[in-house]
Design brief:
The complex is a heterodimer. By secondary structure, chain A is of the alpha+beta class. Helices cover 28% and strands 27% of the residues of chain A. The mean pLDDT of chain B is 97. Chain B has a 5-stranded mixed β-sheet with strand order 2-1-5-3-4, with helices on one face. Classes of the chains: A alpha+beta, B alpha+beta.
Chain lengths: 987, 169
């Protein structure tokens, strides 16, 4: 590479993207104009984790003025085919529920209307009849023979199972001095981009073609999935992306079922349809990383050398296998030995379905799950053998002279020097001082720990790795899949200025800036001279299945392709210049906006003038140059071969290395974790833009810290989703994220055009386990699952929970399933118990005093039915409540048994009410209730539910007091209702 | 405040980025939707619609406020400032905006307008913030790209330059 080509690449220049983004002129999907007549969609979602849909009554919704169409599962079956998946499981995967819902948040109907407000009004008018089924959320429990079954077409909840064997693991285990193993559960989480999903779809009946704009991030292998689902040829599906994206981190791959759904909505409505997801929908129903239960064992020599690994992974992909799953499980298949030289590996992989949201891409993609098990195991090995954890890591690293190194499971580690990285990290990261700090803190009685994690960060996925989930015979039948085509087009217009078109779909990573640097270096221009167009259009751009923004492929693959295209253009331009300057093409150099003869800058042409030649004077081109105004480069690395017959797979092209050190303190009282120091050493090959690399590392670190300490897509055992707002799904703020110390060494990749490797995902793999290792060190515990919330650690520290405050009477619910609520209280009414009693049994009185009550119907003397509207925080909905009275002792006491079901959730509960006269002729009403809340209502969080319940109860009694005191027309049924209301209210 | 009917649109008259503006809104329309889809100012972003993420932060009568927790009709008679008004002129950036660019304090840029609107108000009232105070203040905003480190650096750098500008003025 010539001297001037080094000029821009490698420098932290300011981003070309920023001026627009800083001034409110970004062009995100919801900012763009839409075709005239575009309608707006809203989605009705299942409040239940598992239920049979018995009826969808949508006539009232369809009749609402402004509503154009209501789409249900029947339309989906009529107009689409099930989304294809990569394994041979007979599971249907529709973009909307058909006959049965299998997770909270699953779409059940779509309303298309003149605006979103009207569409949401119409959702309230749709009545869905559900027959509730038992739900399963734990992946291990899903394996039990008696577990509720999600798909009748499967004979269990296992959607895919494969066993693998590399080397001779049995012999290695038999020979080893020690067999050391651990069980870990990696939780569900998501990187939750701040911009949610958005889709604008339009269908052209004349051509039977779909044109769909969305923030979809790739991989564009999904184009085939969508086209098949919509039953059109590939050339009748045009996918486009907006110029700007409000973040993705893998998550916006998961928008693709909505492309199908909105395509159908547009077809049914006969108009373009726009849909923008809201945050509750996103957290509940978009996509998440997989949760995984892993048993990992190592055959270990006495000195800590690991000779073999045995993996047993149970991967929970949620309710369906949605493409490209089970890719989360297989993305790391070549890297199951991590940074270590281990030649014998046994693997058992099971993919199970549960009543949770389907999974997909999320930053780190499979890495967090694998390294959490592997690096926790390395710490356990050290502790059980009484060795230094750092020393155990060091003894097992792949030797620095072994690169390129083929792992037992097939990955070809391109380059690295792990020992040097460790050394530099320990030295420049101040490990000795950190250890001294730990010792000092412990002497003061503090809970201080240090953790390590060594991680190989794969990037540039092999598009064939997912076929490792198939048997070699199945693969042979399907034909080989491999490679990772990257594309880039560079063009020169008639004024001689340069543009680039890429299919990398950036989501904030500054692709336009870095490409401008890379291309400017080749052509002797400034980055500002290059205009990079990053929005993608499958009808016009050069693209392939690997196009898109995932597996950290930009720096290694896309920049490489752009570099190749620019070099080709440069070579052609050099031949044209050679003819005009009367020197040989080898003597031509590009610098400072000029093309000149080396050593004779006076013999030069302006770049723009030369570059325009192909447009204005093609006859003047040398005979060996066809044109020099447009070059498209395609690049796929030959190292990315298909899985072998013995299931070895080079799942990724590049392999960066990360070594992390974390020092932290756990508060003895609160269980809160304070990160004292975090050191992260990276080798990502050649660094193209240091500022952006730092941004990727710091941002990934923040995501990982969230996963380690706070974030979980939590489900109650009954399948209720518990993290539906940003008040429940806690992502770190700037109060929680310290600045990590970032260190680098560079061992360029020999396999990529620029020597760069991916860098975007590594800390999501290394940091969660590094933090967990530090916490385990601080607390001296072996079993530790994320997220390490203060409540969880405090429970570990204190063993026994202090008793709750006396008011919150805990008549524990049987085997808690949903979100349990209980409470008790007292109210005073200025009327005699008899008057209160009769008021509570009078439907008219009840209807007037139950908060949000529309109607009370008396089914029998002791059985009431009511429709009520109640809101908890942002979640407001209508519920049908049933209450039965038992153990009636007029006018003293009764037991109420109630249930409430609505679109937003369900509740069942029991309450007791006691009336007693006070000494001034009034009544003291004391009550106690226990309820279990499920569905969306449960997702908004306990803090809201408890408060809302108290408010509803108070309102009820205040109304009762007014009513009874004012008219002496009593009704005691109130109670019930209000209990009901409570239950419901909580929802 | 006039009595509003849920089923009709009402004229909302207010000052938007220094200009008198009137447009109609149903009482239930959120200010975010009003600004973005009725008035075409799409720089105010919607990240959560429940007041946690801060992406929709604007100024109402000089105070930072969450546009997603405000109804359009509530700004009748008020003065509203949005991200579109932050740069001194088209093609130039404010000191704060320029500091964000210099420090790579944004990646996807979706949270950025809210961050800038909050910081603009904060730095005007607190010209010499220390890092701890600043972090506490910024904790009302979520960013998923940057890890906050460059945002804090940019804000502190902007505060310093604004002080220097004031001193030199």
């Amino acid at each position: 590479m010539s001297v001037q080509s080094q000029a821009w690449t490698g420098r932290s220049i300011e981003r070309v993207e920023d001026a627009a983004l800083l001034t409110g002129l970004g062009r995100y999907i919801d900012d763009l104009g839409v075709p005239s007549g575009t309608l707006h969609a809203a989605i009705l979602r299942s409040p239940h984790p598992h239920a049979k849909i018995e009826a969808v009554r949508a006539a009232a919704a369809a009749a609402l003025p402004g509503v154009a169409a209501v789409i249900t599962g029947d339309d989906i079956v009529r107009l689409t085919t099930s989304l294809p998946v990569g394994v041979r499981a007979s599971i249907k995967c529709w973009p909307m529920a058909v006959d049965r819902v299998r997770y909270v948040g699953e779409p059940v109907a779509v309303v298309v209307a003149v605006d979103r407000y009207v569409a949401e009004d119409a959702l309230d008018l749709i009545e869905v009849g559900y027959r509730l089924l038992a739900a399963i959320v734990d992946p291990r429990a899903a394996l039990e023979p008696e577990a509720p079954r999600l798909h009748e077409s499967l004979d269990s909840n296992i959607a895919s199972e494969r066993c693998f064997r590399y080397g001779d693991p049995e012999a290695a285990f038999a020979k080893a001095a020690h067999r050391i193993g651990i069980d870990v559960h990696y939780p569900r989480n998501s990187c939750t981009p701040l911009e949610t999903y958005g889709v604008v779809a339009s269908y052209s009946p004349g051509e039977d073609a779909y044109d769909i704009l969305s923030g979809f991030q790739g991989p564009f292998s999904i184009h085939s999935v969508i086209a098949r689902a919509l039953k059109v040829p590939g050339n009748r599906l045009r996918l486009r992306t907006p110029p700007d994206s409000g973040g993705s981190f893998g998550i916006k791959q998961g928008v693709f079922p909505y492309l199908v759904l909105m395509g159908v909505a547009s077809r049914v409505a006969g108009r373009p349809v726009k849909w923008v997801e809201d945050r509750l929908e996103h957290l509940t129903g978009s996509v998440s990383a997989t949760n995984r239960a892993t048993r990992i064992e190592a055959a270990v020599d006495a000195d800590g050398r690991v000779r073999a690994l045995a993996w047993d992974q149970i991967e929970d992909v949620g309710a369906h296998i949605r493409a490209p799953e089970p890719a989360t499980l297989y993305r790391m298949h070549g890297n199951l030995t991590g940074a270590y030289d281990v030649r014998h590996v046994a693997v058992r992989n099971r993919v199970v379905v549960t009543n949770k949201t389907p999974t997909g891409l999320n930053r780190g993609f499979g890495g967090p799950q694998v390294y959490y098990a592997l690096e926790r195991l390395m710490q356990r090995i050290a502790l059980e053998l009484k060795l230094d954890p750092l020393e155990v890591i060091r003894r097992n690293l792949v030797p620095s002279k072994a690169f390129p190194y083929r792992t037992a499971t097939g990955a070809l580690l391109d380059s690295g020097n792990y020992q040097q990285a460790l050394e530099v990290a320990a030295r420049d990261g101040g490990l000795a001082e950190l250890r001294a700090r730990r010792d000092a803190a412990r002497r003061e009685g503090k809970l201080y720990g240090i953790g390590f994690a060594a991680v190989v960060e794969p990037s540039v996925s092999n598009m064939g790795y997912i076929t490792t989930a198939l048997t070699p015979e199945e693969r042979a039948k399907a034909g080989p899949k491999n490679g990772a085509q990257a594309t880039a087009t560079i063009s020169i217009d008639p004024l001689g200025t340069v543009s680039a078109h890429i299919a990398s779909v950036p989501q904030g990573q500054g692709h336009r800036t870095v490409l401008a640097q890379v291309i400017a270096d080749q052509l002797g221009l400034k980055p500002a001279d290059i205009f990079v167009v990053a929005e993608m259009d499958t009808a016009r751009d050069a693209w392939s299945i690997a196009s898109g923004n995932y597996s950290s492929r930009f720096a290694a693959a896309v920049c490489g392709a752009a570099h190749i295209a620019a070099a080709r253009l440069r070579a052609k331009l050099a031949r044209i210049a050679a003819a005009q300057l009367n020197v040989s093409a080898e003597e031509i150099e590009f610098a400072g906006g000029k093309v000149q003869a080396r050593g004779n800058p006076d013999n030069a042409l302006a770049f723009a003038r030369l570059a325009a030649t192909s447009h204005w004077a093609p006859g003047a081109l040398p005979s060996d140059v066809d044109q020099a105004f447009r070059e498209t480069a395609f690049w796929t690395p030959p190292e990315l071969t298909a899985p072998t017959e013995s299931d070895e797979v080079n799942s990724s092209l590049c392999h960066g290395f990360i070594f992390d050190i974390c020092g932290l303190e756990v508060d003895r009282v609160t269980g809160a974790v304070r990160i004292d120091k975090y050191v992260t050493m990276h080798d990502c090959g050649r660094v193209l833009h240091p500022g952006m690399v730092a941004g990727q590392i710091t941002g990934g670190f923040a995501h990982a810290l969230g996963a380690a300490l706070y974030e979980e897509y939590a489900y109650a055992p009954d399948g209720s989703f518990l993290a539906g707002t940003f008040a429940d799904y806690l992502v770190p703020t700037c109060m929680e994220v310290p600045a990590p110390l970032i260190l680098h060494i560079e061992t360029p990749s020999p396999f990529t055009p620029l020597g760069a490797k991916g860098v975007g995902e590594g800390n999501c793999m290394s940091t969660p386990v590094c933090v967990a290792n530090a916490v385990a060190d601080a607390l001296g515990i072996a079993d530790i699952d994320l997220p390490l919330t203060p409540a969880k650690l405090a429970a570990t520290l204190q063993r026994v929970e202090p008793p709750p405050p006396p008011r919150a009477v805990a008549a524990a619910l049987p085997a808690g399933k949903g979100r349990a609520l209980h409470g008790a209280g007292e109210a005073r009414v200025a009327a005699a118990p008899e008057a209160v009693w009769s008021a509570l049994l009078d439907t008219r009185v009840l209807a007037s005093i139950i908060p949000g009550c529309h109607d009370v119907e008396q089914v029998s003397a002791t059985h009431f039915r009511a429709d009520v509207t109640l809101g908890v925080g942002p979640v407001k909905g209508r519920y049908r409540a049933e209450v039965k009275l038992e153990d009636l002792v007029p006018p003293q006491s009764a037991t109420l048994i109630g249930s409430a079901v609505g679109a937003l959730g369900s509740a069942v509960g029991k309450g007791s009410v006691r009336l007693s006269g006070d000494d001034v002729g009034g009544t003291v009403i004391s009550y106690e209730y226990d309820a279990e809340i499920g569905g969306k209502a449960a997702a908004v969080g306990g803090r809201l539910l408890d408060g809302a319940a108290r408010i509803v109860i108070r309102q009820f009694f205040e109304a009762l007091a007014r009513r009874v005191a004012g008219t002496a027309a009593p009704a005691w049924r109130l109670w019930l209702d209000r209990l009901l209301a409570r239950f419901r209210g909580r929802p | 405040m006039p009595r509003l009917s849920a089923t009709s649109r009402h004229a909302v008259s207010f000052v938007l980025n220094g200009r008198s503006t009137t447009a109609d809104a149903e009482p239930r329309m959120l200010l975010t939707d009003f600004l973005r889809h009725v008035l075409g100012l799409t720089g105010t972003h919607v990240g959560c619609e429940h007041g946690v993420c801060g992406a929709c932060t604007i100024h109402i009568d000089g105070q930072p406020a969450r546009a997603c927790l405000t109804l359009a009709v509530q700004v009748d008679g008020a003065s509203v400032r949005t991200i579109e008004d932050l740069a001194p002129e088209p093609g130039r950036l404010s000191v704060l905006q320029a500091a964000f660019r210099r420090h790579h304090a944004l990646q996807c840029g979706f949270c950025t307008p809210g961050m800038l609107m909050s910081l603009d108000a904060y730095l005007a009232a607190n010209p010499e913030p220390d890092e701890a105070e600043l972090r506490k203040y910024l904790s009302g905003h979520l960013c998923r790209c940057t890890g906050y480190v460059p945002i804090v650096a940019a804000a502190l750098d902007a505060a310093k330059r604004l002080r220097e500008d004031t001193a030199n003025a």
